[in-house]
Structures
1.
Amino acid sequence: MSGPDREFQEAAWLDSDESRTAIRVVVNGKQVRARVPDRLLLSDFLRDHLGLTALKVACGEGACGACTVVIDGEPARCCTLLAVQTEGAHILTLEGINAAQGLNRVQQLFQQNHAVQCGYCTPGWLMTVYCMMHRSISPDSDEVAAYLSGHLCRCTGYRNIWTAVRQALGNAAEEPASGEK
Amino acid sequence: MKPAKFRYVRAETAAHAVELLCAEEGRAKILAGGQSLIPALSARTTSASVVLDIMRCPGLEVLSQTEGEVTIGAACRQFQMERSPLVQHSIPLLSEALSWVAMPQVRSRGTVVGCLAQANAGAEVPVVSLALDAQFQILVRGGERYQMPAQDVYAAATGTRLPAESLIVSASFRSRAVGEGWGFYEVQLRPGHFALVCCAATLLLDQNGRIGSVRIALGGLTASPYRAERAEKALLGESVENDSMIDEAARIASEERPWPARTDLHATGAFRSKAAVAAVARALMDARVRCSRHPGATNERA
């Protein structure tokens, strides 16, 4: 991502007479100024205009969690937000928490526990885990299940993700070898 | 999925928002958290000439407490209210119900009042508003403000009776009385899904330890939520320990529905009717556990 006044790429489906609004946001620690079409979704702004493609768009209606980013410290869907709504906000995407080299700690835990298969949903999970760690959610809290219910994964079956997340939250205890959850 | 074209306007004040609503003659839509509106615009099941963002209007972000009630402004987000010590202490029924609303990743943006205005079938907050005798503060054309009780707002079989081109600026919920118990229970397909049915209940005992005041509200069973007043009457004066009365009240609450039981692709009306009985019984039993058996013998202040 380059400086604030960069001429960003326009999506092909936009018309020439789009109503636009100027916004100023901080994305991954950098000031971004843009005149965005009013109907542009935040997910399209981040992916198509700023090139931040870690977040994925799947359901487009807030159900699946693949587009989850962090806005002002809380995890949020960016497919159910307009870019203009985020005026003044601090937005964090996976690109903003990646390690300089290799994988960060949570990513390593996902890898070790085979909590990743096709990987399409993974960036969303990682942003939610980031927020859970910042709120110091206990690995034994009921809130773990509540947060994780905000993401769908069609490959791994959740159990490995559950284990990786609990370890990330600071409990090295393994899940029981058999039984529920 | 992309929304069709509209113009986005950041309303400067609540009055400005209503003015613009009137100027667009029903074609404008109010945007608060947007967790229902934006997906609907994207799917193009709804459209708007102007989308009016009210989140920066001064005053709408206020959460305040006066004697006997807590008032929540239209810009208060669900996660803030869920975690607010004031809400947890004075209207614990709401903070409990909010934990059933969608997922944390949606509650981070959605608003409490937006949930009241949207009034989706199976939404939790309108049900709580009925159980807590909520009053909606409404701003209409010409800057006129008035109050509307939740029971009037949800008196229609579908949708709301909110006046056209109006804005709910805040909603006031009755604070928990000393010794009052509350319960919320929901039957859902999976966490985060809309309620198939849900029930909010409060119980307060009289000096003889019998049920002196009770509220039962149901959502999801019918398209609009309703208060089960016949079931409430059946419980007045009864012993709170009487399980068979609770079961009987739950049956009455499901049967007294003012409109037909709702059938959709997730559940039939017959299933919902039965699930409603279970939800009411569970909410009442939770309320029973939380209410004080010895009124006057406690220092608790709500």
2.
Amino acid sequence: MLRFIVRRLLLLVPILLGLSILVFGWVRALPGSPAQTLLGEHATPQAVEQIRHQYGLDKPLPIQYWDYLKTVSSGNLGTSIRSYRPVSYEIQHRFPATIELALGAMIFAIGIGIPLGFFAAKKYGSFFDQASLVGSLIGISIPIFFLGLVLKYIFAVRLGWLPSIGREDVLATRAHPTNLFILDSIIEGDPGAFWDAVKHLILPSIALGSIPLAIVTRITRAAVLDVQHEDYVRTARAKGLPPNEVDRRHVLRNALLPISTIIGLQTGLLLSGAVLTETVFQWPGIGSWLTQAIPNRDYPVLQGGILFVAIVFVLVNLVVDISYAIINPRIRLS
Amino acid sequence: MRKKVVCFALLAVAAAVMLAACGSSGKSSKKSSFVFASSADPVLLDPALVSDGESLRITNQIFESLVGFKLGGSEVEPQLATSWTPSNGGKSWTFKLRSGVKFSDGTAFNAAAVCFNYDRWYNFPAALQNAAVSYYWNTVFGGFAHPATGNPGPDKSLYKSCTTKGDNEVTLNLTRASSSFISAIGLPNFSIASPTALKKYDADAGTVDSTGVFHPTGSFATKNPVGTGPYMLQSWEPNVKLVLVSNPKYNGSKPSFTKVIYRAISDNAARLQALQSGEIQGMDYVAPQDYSTVQKDSSLQLLKRPVSSVGYIGLNQAKAPMNNPLVRQAVAHAIDKAAIVKAIYGQTGQVANQFLPPSLFGYAKSGVPDYAYDPAQSKALLQKAGLTLPVKIDFWYPTSVVRSYMPDPQRIFQAMQSNLNNAGFKVVPHSAQWSPDYLGGAQSGKYQMYLLGWIADYYDPQDFLNVHFGSETPLFGFNNPTLFAMLAKADAEPNAASRTQQYEQASIAVMKYLPVVPYAWGSSALALDKNIQGYVPGPIGPINEPWAKLKK
């Protein structure tokens, strides 16, 4: 197991090196330059040239790449051209928001998806089963952007129950040691802050969790359908185990294998940022930040941010692989 | 038993949602606070080092300049200076200062503070001379005392020196006569900051990192901006919120909202929903398609800014037959401006009959030649010019851009193409990505005819007319010494009434000469909670819309 983990971690080096070249090349292949973006439409060619010189953009590409690699390997991801803040500072503040939202969405998807899929399989062919199928189809096909706006219109604008933007009440003045607001409120022992953070998380979690919910429901349903016709399940029933016991110990447990894989992959995806949800709910996460960096030609943000997201994604995949082996000892990692 | 547990869990979730709902959905119970949202975060809070509207919107609440602009207009009026007089043929301007004014850190505002600020800008270190950092000093004053390699020096500078006489009189000396500079120094960029705070918080200290980005190492521009304005900064969490509180040392009437919170909400729809749900009480940049939603909502009010930008068809006279005035007139008569503005601009635009928007002094109320929509007249003019119909023209439009003067370039182009083809022309369409390709192409004189527009850097006719038609440029490709001289004279005129009159004449002269065909003036709008009173939307937008005047 240890060898496997070390080998996978070592593989990160060539992956990241390759990725850094890709990102570096891609960012520079974008039309337009940061100098032009910074100076706006009234820029003189001299001013543009001056900025290019100052930012080292007039050097040959391999030298620019080497400079970039040197700074990144020293742990410095650079400073945003636009906000003047270090990229690492932005990640420190934005990634916790992304984690909180991804976890909220996955709790919503798992908490509803697994029971829904399980009961749909148990009531195979019934109205409930059909309804869950149609529901998950809608869940997958409805655009998150639209769902977010509709949820906000109903629960924020019309009913006034839940807030429509942000992570906490705008008038709040609280300390955020970890930047994970729910965890912070627990650390500080502040129930008001806890509710405030939870209610801000509800609508974005539902919007973002709608697609994973549909996927988890369908995978659970299919897995349970598969497993419940296995010999060992039939044996368990035949020997007189109570039905609930059979479902819990034999059906659900074995069905969890494909479900856990899909949950891991979905979480990895969500951790790389949820552009649309973040934009609609003004959630200060990684996704909207990176998207905004494209029109601004914010090279340091694009390069540093994408590299960071890639590392997260690779690590999450590693965790998924390891957890797969733990859940199913029959699988040999070698 | 299990069912009971499930029921209990469901009840707990329901209770949580109810509790969350009862905790008020962000509707502020504090009457003394005002929450406002626009599309982006400020960049820095040192007005001398920014040029974006959002930074200036905030610094304008914290700082004051020597002069300001009339609410809802562009006329210069007293702010930190009570009066000013030009001398030495418009090369020296003496300002009498308001007495008893203090900065929010308790230090005194006086003539020495004014000179400290002007000398600071003029003596900016190399890093701050960067045109992206001190854009407005570069644009208005154009030179530095100790220029870094490649930067403009004292020979290019409009600013020469600053002298004081006692505590309440200061003179700004210029290297040449300029009257537009009075409007320019009303910009928040030339606000007077506390010299003590500038030094204490290392306003000019900054580094250029390995990627070449300048960022301040001092805290003046991020945590401690100190001015004489009605508000002062309490806190700023980038991407979350910025909080201003009233300045107890302010030398004017106390603002009714003692706390103002600014949020950046980039998505238009999200911003509007936050306003509708009561989480914010005001927002800027209502999308044109949302105007009617706001107007129909009884709890909201829509405030439209006067039109202040101009959209035009550029005609490059270096490319024949655009050098023929008859052809330019034929283009002007060919365009159905009213139909285009109605269909594409909706409530955000107005048909333009000249280059200067009506809210700006110098706008000519009468005497402007009327180029009415008349395709037959266009054809007649082209024939009179000795051309064979249809006359082939290369017409360019930009892609991936939206501006208040050009909300949908492609549709505008299509409408004009059809107009021109009906009026004796044969349009060859071309397009390019807005920045840097399109702008670069237009500015280097590559295009024969093109769509473009202008949003002023500062609201003075000089920034419209002289910038475009005051000298020979590849953009328009003409040399008209009479017009150049007329504009230079108007800019240098120290008498305000005479200057206005000269610019009115110049505006008419431009429309007679017709280097461009202005077709629309554009504007933007804000939406506020119905109960908020006192917001006066102005032509120069966020940089002159003080929150201190608001009340509930």
